[in-house]
Amino acid sequence: MFFRTLFLLLLPLLATPSWAACRNHGVTPPAQVRIADDSVMIVVHQSSTHDARFATKRGVDEAVRFAKSRKIPVIYLQDDTPDEFYFMEDCFPYHWVFSQGGEISFELTASHVYIVGGHLELCMSTTLHDIIFQWSKRAPRNFTVTYLMDAIYSNGKMIEPADPFYADFERFIGIVTYGRPGGEHWPKLSLLETMGIILREDHELEYIKKILPRWDRTFPRNYRIAVQMNDSVKKVLRTAPGWNPPTVLFRFVDSALNLSEPRMDGF
């Protein structure tokens, strides 16, 4: 436990000490965004304005590298943060698209979305709600959201004082923000670090249920809903009629370095 916690604390320091400032890039109007592939990677507001300690720097770089190696289109969502604060190593996604609050203002036909970056509780939540709303309007089929946890940042506001790991969370945040100025932009940790704090699988599942987009208000009852941690057994959150109903899988993976193809069997 000690060594895992130490590794998670040091993870941001393993990142490359410099970064590419992606200046003077073009921005694609939403109406011109066309993604024909069945998988896409969405990178949400990956900047030091929101992740000031670069907790997700290595994660996002590995994620984009993975996507490009598999020829998966990558879309960067950018808000009004100046270009120099965006710290992705790769400055050449399929599209840069302006999105002030994480909103998806273009048509998304892919059935598998890799989600990267973004404030888990704010802009990334908006992104995912827009995505699943679009999916709910399409003909029934299987859909997958893959969360790359070392590339997603959070302020931990879904961790509550009654949670058994709350004291560990408070201690962790106190360490990584020690001596830094106050303000919303400082106290961030990665989703992978959050899992390192929680540790117990049953507690992780309860936390995951709280941070998922509101699938219960979005998908009709004929959809089965499931979650999965890495390649572990899938947990069904809601059953659906029939022997092989359309399924929405929310899959949480430590890092793009650990990725394998998701499977819809094994329920």
Task: Give the tags.
single chain; 267 residues; alpha/beta; 8-stranded mixed beta sheet; two-stranded antiparallel sheet; 6 helices; 25% helix; 18% strand; globular
Secondary-structure content class: alpha/beta
Q: Tell me roughly what share of residues is in helical segments.
A: 10-25%
**Which strand order does the major sheet show?**
3-2-1-4-5-10-8-9
Terminal Cα separation, in Å?
31 Å
Radius of gyration, whole Å: 18 Å
Mean pLDDT: 89
Shape: globular
The proportion of residues in beta strands is 15-25%
What's the main sheet like?
Answer: 8 strands, mixed
Order of helices and strands: HEHEEEHEEHEHHEEE
Low-confidence stretches: 10-17
Total number of β-strand segments? Answer: 10
